[in-house]
## 1
Amino acid sequence: MPDPPDQLDDHILVASFKNEQSKEAAFTKLVRKYQERLYWHIRRMVVEHEDTNDILQNVFIKVWKNLGEFREESNLYTWLYRIGTNEALTWIEQQKRRTSVSINENEDLYAERLTAQKDFDPGMIEWKLQQAIHTLPEKQKLVFNLRYYDEMPYEDMAGVLGTSVGALKASYHHAVKKVEAFLKGI
Amino acid sequence: MGSFLADYSRKMPYSVPDSFFAGLADNLQETIKELSEPEIVPAWGKKMPYAVPGGYFEALVGDIVSSVTSVDLSATFPKGSPLGVPVGYFESLPEKMLLAAKAGDTRVKKIPKIIPLGRQTVRNPIRWAAAAVMLMCIGLGSYETFYNRQLPKHEKMLASVSNNDIQDYLQHTYRLDVGRIVGNNEINDLQVDPKDIVQYLNETGWDQVE
């Protein structure tokens, strides 16, 4: 969760963006601040760099178009993650429809994408963990990634995913168990 | 119930894993207990193994900013069409279409294009000249072929020989009744090689016909 100074910084960014004189400068600063976090959040979902880049561009174009109407009911960071998550999930659904991939084939698809990555090494724990995570259902994968890698508080995650805190805790708990079982099985 | 659904079975078609319900209560109790304890953070490491192209993040900001701030050039394009439409076209079109449809003729008859005479201009003189040359060549070739035919050498020579000499030859060599052949107009049925006639005359002597 962003620190209070960080939240203030976000508030200033939003206010600057809403001012035509400083709109572009504020947007540039915003992109620089969040680009890597959003990039990795998306890449953990879709694996390929090129696909991640496409989705990330779409995310920031949406931010440019809609930040002027952002009412700051949630914090900026949660709002950005929500856009990134929705764009990634939409892209994944489109790919599944395009290729008519079943649930079982979906796991194989991710397995193929992973093994095709540069420097893929099934002996390394980082790659094994990615393989384990990609056996999870999409929503549970998101929960795991946001909690494990981004250390996002459940309250913020509820704002991103539109799910209750209790359900998110349970989902994460089960995801950890499944990942653990996968890693032990290798 | 009076609805048509009243006769339909309410059995769910979905399959459920064996002993799911039998173990559900115990599983839930265990989950609730675990969730009430402090969350354990697994020690698997957080390093991402994926490669990122060099300089990607440095260039990303510029790419995104230029894509969102670039002027939409298509917004400056004129919206109106430069193509003209005949006056009253759309007003009369429904009636025309209806008449055509009723008549069973789905083709809309075109107004014939009027080409004014006397105002023809030669747009490409070179093409016309080339066509004229072609026609001349074809004409000359036809003339040479059909009207100025060169007779074979032997027939030329025979042209100067009298009919009596030819008849003598025929009677002598082929034992033909020349009088009958000529009288019955069978002369064209004879298969006589002019070369043979020429050879005969070379041996017997030519009498020139004047």
Note: The longest helix of chain A spans residues 23-46.
## 2
Amino acid sequence: MVDCPMGKIAALFLLVMHPRLLALWRGQVMPETLPGKVPRNGESAPQFELPDSTGTLRRLSELVSQGALVLLFFRGHW
Amino acid sequence: MADYSEHDREIRATGASVAAISVDPPKKSEAVRQELQLPFPILCDTERRVVQQWDIYNAREKGGIAKPAIFIIDRDRNVRYHSIDTTSARVPASEIVRILQTKEEALPARRKIYFPRLADFIRAIRNAARFGVRSPRA
């Protein structure tokens, strides 16, 4: 059925991407396709506002207002 | 975490501060903070919005958790240093203290992207002429 290399590539692409294409068709955004990108060195870190463990809202701009911030992402309690 | 807790004073001495982030709810995080007696806040990204935006989200494990990662963010909110780690190998806090103490120009250069040069193409063509284009069959 598929005998040209471009057709093979297209078929492979469809095979790999079909869950995402289906989701796109239905207008859903899959969790792993949310726009996300590791901020590189020298780039501006995206602003956020999150509650800390005591319930106080903390903004990134507030956390860095006194000086540099060491931000540790961790897996959490298990 | 405990390593950073121990080095908290040294980090503070450089004018910096520490904050941790996980996807745990505040109750759980507060328990961790009490248990380890952490001197810094734990932020709770229960909706996994920040971990996804920063692309350090591990959706495959335990209902979606953050990958271990460290960022040093300057006062102007620029990233000075970052490291995305594995569970077994985290950047030690002493290394972070060293980076905080050094000036920016002293930081190690970024990894170079390998770009093939003319010599590489010539070698490839010569090898193709000598051994053929296909890889040898086992």
Note: The radius of gyration of chain A is 21 Å.
